[in-house]
Structure formats: structure tokens, C-alpha cells
Amino acid sequence: MSKILMVCLGNICRSPLAEGILQSKLPSQDFFVDSAGTSNYHIGNPPDNRSVNIARHNDIDICLQKARQFTRQDFIDFDVIYAMDNSNLENILKLAHTKEERNKVKLILNESFPNANKDVPDPYYDSNKGFEIVFNMLDNACTIIANRLQNK
Ligand code: 4NP
Q: Consecutive 10-residue runs of the chain (152 residues): their mean pLDDT?
């Protein structure tokens, strides 16, 4: 079982989408995909309605997800930890104790744009269009991730 964690700030906009999208591309008997936030702002909350809607529009159901905060245990529980932006990446790396833990953490858009260190923009204060742009960025990155994980 390969375990992949998606991380953003609130765990209500970007990482719930990344979780749902990657899950939709991988067989659940071989892969566990989860998400978390670096902040405690929205612990226990469902994803933002705008994320739920753009996911549903693409036949992905994320409405049963619940926000949780990233913890040090996640370095033990997961094989790969994808940060949605550079700020999340820095905050996750601050919690890492070992080189092995640091090596698990990657920027998700480096999958689509190697070494470019691009951010998935925070859509929280944006319109529905912002969520559509984020969905498409994450869909492209997750296609690449899913193909590599399955040696396609
Ligand atoms: P996310 O978006 O990190 O993609 O879940 C945000 C959600 C909430 C806040 C910021 C970003 N907030 O400041 O409450």
C-alpha cells in the first residue's frame, strides 16, 4: 500500500481537491490518499462549497471529507507529502526532524513543471473561476503522479 498526503493551508479548498482527484485516478486497494492543512483554522469542517461544486462537476465527490491539521505523525504514516504551495512546503519542512522526513515532501506542481517551484494559487478569496483553474492544475499534476505510481 502506497500512501500519499496532500497538504494546503486550510484543508478546505486545494488539498481536498487534490485528494479527490488523485483517488479517482488510482485503485483504492493499492493506494491510500489523504489530505491535511498546516493551519488549525478549519479543523472538522467539510471542504469549501466551491471545491465541492467543481469536483462534482467533474464526477468526483469530496463532500464527506473533514479538515484536519498536519501532524508529525504524517511523516511516519505517508510515503509522499505534496505541498500545494511554497509557504505550505516551508511550514511542513519546519516540522521535519530527519533527512528521510524532508525527502518525503514535494511541491505538487513540480510534477507538471519540473523544478519551477510554482504555487497552486490560494483560491479562498477568489471567484469560482479560481477554483476551476486550481482544479485543472491539480488534475494535470495528478495524472502525472498516478501514471508514475503505476509505472505507466
Ligand atoms: P486552502 O485555502 O489552503 O486551499 O484550504 C484556504 C482556506 C482557508 C483560508 C486560507 C486558505 N483561511 O485563511 O481561512
A: 98 99 98 98 98 98 98 98 98 98 98 98 96 98 98 88
